[in-house]
Amino acid sequence: MAPLTTDVVRCAWPGADPLYCAYHDEEWGTPERDARALWEKLVLDGFQAGLSWITILRKREAFRQAFRQFDPMTVARFDAADIDRLMADPGIVRARAKIAGAIGSAQAYLAMRDRGEDFADFIWGFVDGTPIQNTWTRRDQVPTQTPLSVEVSKALKARGFSFCGPVIVYAFLQATGVVNDHLESCFRHEACRRLGGS
Questions:
Q1: Who wins on pLDDT, 58 or 197?
Q2: What percent of the chain has pLDDT over 70?
Q3: Alpha-carbon torsion, ordered 134, 167, 138, 180, to 10 deg
Q4: How many domains does the chain have?
Q5: pLDDT by residue (tens digit) across 90-140?
Q6: Residue 8, in any domain of the structure
Q7: Is 1 among the domain residues?
Q8: Full domain range(s) for residue 101
Q9: End-to-end CA distance of the chain
Q10: Looking at the whole model, is its pTM more than 0.85?
Q11: Smallest Cα–Cα separation from 135: which of 175, 172, 186, 197?
């Protein structure tokens, strides 16, 4: 983890937590175009449902170990014994429905691939490959869902994904840089805009 940068203006939501600030400064809002990494983030956002993201972030390495580095081919083959193993793992969020949802989402991911539909191309196709650049000046202006997240959610569910409602999907789109929701005053706003090609 990089040293916490204290001499910059950032979005307020990470507070002073070093792990959360590092995530904000190095990952959140950075355009992610790797299909597997996008799928991992969607699965983790599904596990976040009803919880805070910092809870998932603190458990992320344990999740990666438990879910075999989020390799979709491996996760898609998880069986009842794997579910029992995961339910006994104190390092992750032990929710049977979410675990089953992750396995189902791996199977949906592979089904898309087998049809010639790349997951990254699918996600980025909703914005024609170019991130949406918002210009919020206050945190209370940032929505929790949008017509875009509703559209993406419906498309994911139609392909067999679960735990991907519009609010979860919007958090996913923000985190993966499909939408740049850093406040204009935040030092990462312009950096993410440039990374997005704007």
A1: 58
A2: 96
A3: -30
A4: 1
A5: 999 999 999 999 999 999 999 999 999 999 999 999 999 999 999 999 999
A6: no
A7: no
A8: 18-24+31-195
A9: 28
A10: yes
A11: 186
The C-alpha atoms of residue 168 and residue 184 are separated, in whole angstroms, by 23
Q: What is the CATH number of the domain that holds 182?
A: 1.10.340.30
The mean pLDDT value of the chain amounts to 95
Q: Is the pLDDT of residue 1 over 60?
A: no
Task: Give domain status of residue 10, yes or no.
Answer: no
Domain membership of residue 181 (yes or no) is: yes
Place of tokens 């029992």: 84
Q: Which of 24, 1, 5, 4 is nearest to 14 (CA)?
A: 24
- Three-state DSSP at 186 gives coil
Contacts for 83-92 with beta carbons within 8 Å, 24 or more apart? 89/62, 91/59, 91/62, 91/63, 91/65, 91/66, 92/47, 92/59, 92/62, 92/63, 92/66
